[in-house]
Fold:
Amino acid sequence: MRDFIAIDFETANREPSSVCSVGVVMVRGGQVVDSFYSLIQPEPNYYNYWCQRVHGLSQQDTDDAPVFSKVWQQLEERIAEVYSCPIATLPFVAHNARFDEGCLKAVFKVYQMDYPDYRFYDTLTAARRQFGYSLPNHQLHTVAAACGYDLQNHHHALADAEACAAIALYIL
Structure:
């Protein structure tokens, strides 16, 4: 796979629609050509202890952040500039794609946006196939290291999207 969008969401609570940040890495011709990061005011707008502990974000961080629909509009415009095509024609890649695709579908529903059936590829599934039991686990940081990528700042949406892009370029 040479052209794709690696994406990662962080959520404020256990609701998949509560995305509070998004990181995106755009890969064209097998090269990273652009990236995008934004905080997002989550819906519903509350943070639970567990999620805050994982990514370190709080309501204070996102009180003045744009809502998802505004962020997605910015992202669509940026992707159209980079690829010269609509976002819906490009494949998405995520580590544990069920989570990120679930978040995307949930937040599209909350904002009553039409979901265009994005194609998602899962680096977690690919890593399990590629590495099997040779790794102690298939978590993002473990797989990234096995692919020669040093993930810094794990659970920051852009850092995780960058690691996912590196994994996808290595094994997809």
Q: What stands out?
A: The first strand starts at residue 4 and ends at 11. The chain has a mean pLDDT of 97.
